[in-house]
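Q: Fold this one first, please.
A: Sequence and structure below.
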Amino acid sequence: MTDHPGHQDTPDAVPAGAPAHRSDAAETRAFHELLRGLRVWDVDLPAFDPAAAPDDPLPLFRQWLREAAEAGVPEPHTMTLATADAAGDPSVRTLMLHDADERGWHFASHRGSRKGRELAVRPRAALGFYWAAVGRQVRVHGSVTVAGPEESAADLHRRATGALAAALVGRQSEVLGSTAELARASEAAWERARREPEAPVPSWTLYVLRAEEVEFFQGDAQRRHVRLNYRYEGDGWAKELLWP
């Protein structure tokens, strides 16, 4: 974006020694200009032929995640998880995919966290993956089941020491009094995680989302996006194209 002399904003008067700041109108205008100036898919995007897609969405999902990793997408296993409470009010957050197999898409958290409480009363969820470098996204939604304590513990103890330390801190989604309180709890948790790599965390729970729909979206620079949707119909998957 090019500056145009003679059309500069005049800053609001501020007391001597106070930091200069933009007016609300100027800040809003600058933010809108920033949004309009951001580029979308200014790289070569892969082609996707939905006619060649497998009958089951799992192999295609694994292929796309692998290709995203190979394209240099950072943390391609991160995903958005959407849940809702008993009243239907939604909440969303980003977390890691732990596995994707014939049972479904796996993720984990504390039972007492917000997501854990919401899944307890409304065991349905949606996942979203977005890999900007290849212009692809995958949407998954369906019912969620809880794995048993042994499988949940095994999931945790397969992960890095830092994951165990974070789980040992616990109290996820509770109000935190201060960052110093967190620092003390985290330091103690790290010490225990190193000392006891199999330390139990009873609240840690593995969840499995059994997909009922899985949509694959391949972006196109000309906006002729390809959307392939899989729907589970009880005895197998049906495939359909969606208008972009």
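Q: Good. Now the second chain.
A: Here it is, same layout.
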Amino acid sequence: MTALRTAGRTSLVDTVVDQLRAQLAEGAWSVGDRIPTEHELADRLGVGRNTVREAVRVLVHAGLLESRQGNGTFVRSTADPAAVLRHMRRADALEVLELRVALEAEAARLAAERHDPADLRRMRDALATVVAGGDRDADADVAFHLAVVEATHNSAFVEVYRFFSAQVHEVLVHALGDREMPPIDIAAHTALVAAVAGGDPAAAERAARDLLKVPIDAVRALTAHRTV
């Protein structure tokens, strides 16, 4: 196993966290492996056991490690959600929207095939909230799109979308600042609900793509203007 680099004096816990993340990403331990004890890690890093304990606790909360009382600490995952978030934050607004189209178009197609009456009620209730709150209620709009994704009845899809949707607004704001985006297209959202309710996968996918074409075109125009 590759030796860990000795941690410096500044932000020791953060340094140890970063080094352990790197070891996991590099394959020093596989999923299910028990990592070295606090005492062993402290010796390798040249830090105190309390520092190692705090760093391990951070990675347990992050879902990368699992502490089993009496047995030690084991690798739960080598895929770091924090790394995904960092990459998302480096993506530009257009890249994020293009990914959103891919996710939501497939979600709409599956929703048309798999939805049940409760799913339709959630979509219609969310759309009613968007209409009642005005065409710039971002939270209501996110709830609407999540209702469509939940209608896929695919738990993995739902979890990925929950994570992803939480980052979309942050990326857009960071990339575009306060420049105005177009209002929410109520008619396009209504058409998506109708296509899902009608059980037409092709129409639902097309409606989802049409719905997101407006913000994508707006971002292209805004970013093109910025580079001129």
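Q: Anything worth noting on the second one?
A: The longest strand covers residues 65-68.
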